[in-house]
Amino acid sequence: MDHPPDPPIKDDLKPGLPYVPGAVLKIQQCMPHPPFGFMYRDMTSRVERMFPWKQFDTASRFCLQYPPLQGKPIANPETRTIVIDSQIRCGDGRGAQVVKCHFEDGETPLVAKIYDPLYYLWDMDDITYNADLEFTNEAAAFVTLQDMDKEHTVGYPRVREALKGSIPRYYGSYTWESQLLDGQRRDVRLILMEYFAFPSMRSIITEGRVESIPAQVRMQLLARAFEIYAWLGFYGVNQHDFAPRNIMVDPDKGRVVLLDFSIAKIRGLYNSKWSAPQGKPPPTNPKHPLHLFKGTWALMDGEGWVPKHLYSAQARYDWFLAQWPDLTMFQPPNWFWYNVHEPSLRKAIEREKAEAKKREDEAEMKEKKRPVQKAKRRRKKRNW
Questions:
Q1: Which domain holds residue 184?
Q2: What is the pTM of this model?
Q3: Number of domains the chain is built from
Q4: What's the rounded Cα separation, in Å, for the pair 54 and 14?
Q5: What ranges does the record list as Basic and acidic residues composition bias (predicted)?
């Protein structure tokens, strides 16, 4: 969420946001519940409750009534203490809280993503459902991505090499016990992951620093982000939220990292609705970015990241093919590309050509009229 949230509703049990610099959280390792939601076969009795404020007057009481889903118990769970150094994306009503932190007995900077429903936006949504959904999805994605270092996984070792350094390192899932103003306690889930000192595309754009990066470098970084997304999908993790805020970039080193798997779709999990086609061999290559992104800049249009001379449909089409000319390195296009996306792109190209021709004709006509108009003005002046 990039815009400021609405003012929270008054809650007599709700403390101020606890995720502030200097805060110390004692956390315990936990096994996340399997992911759920419309992309998965339901393995829970979890029901999304719309308009929860009709039954519960405050978010605190709602969170107490519906604690986080429990995963399988761990025999000897690890207990650690983290210290929050700074806020990355925090605020009441902003959803998951993201902070920079470190272990009390270490110095390595980490990122904690804290799925505390009490600080989600309390309006018409089921905040506990959303927090559980995001936590279980993101944890499952990180666990799945950890496995790509193992032999006999999809595309090994090509996937491992293609995604090397392009996703955050995962340090585990934890829970911590938060306390309400009346002393009642409740569990809150969090994930620890690698910290990156370089910015997101979104922050570069909003801070007006886009032009400080050469256009060629910007497009190389965007191309790398497209590749990461394509290889993730080939491996079986559809990140599902390709946006400037989730793309970290280091222009000096050419490094790109894709973040946020809270709404990811994962293939191959026992309860996943996304599985390899029955009776067909699995794909041997990722999808071509042209086909995957339908020849668009994927929410980058108008952001200033893409140079204006690449805005047209023809320029986009030419760029994608020039960037990845060897089509044999990718999956063949599917039915949707041939019957929906490519015709749409072709129509856009033809429409742009027609509009350009119309502008040329109008300019030519205007140029032809100019001498006649000048002659008329001269005659009119003489008559005066």
A1: 24-154+168-194
A2: 0.88
A3: 2
A4: 18
A5: 351-367
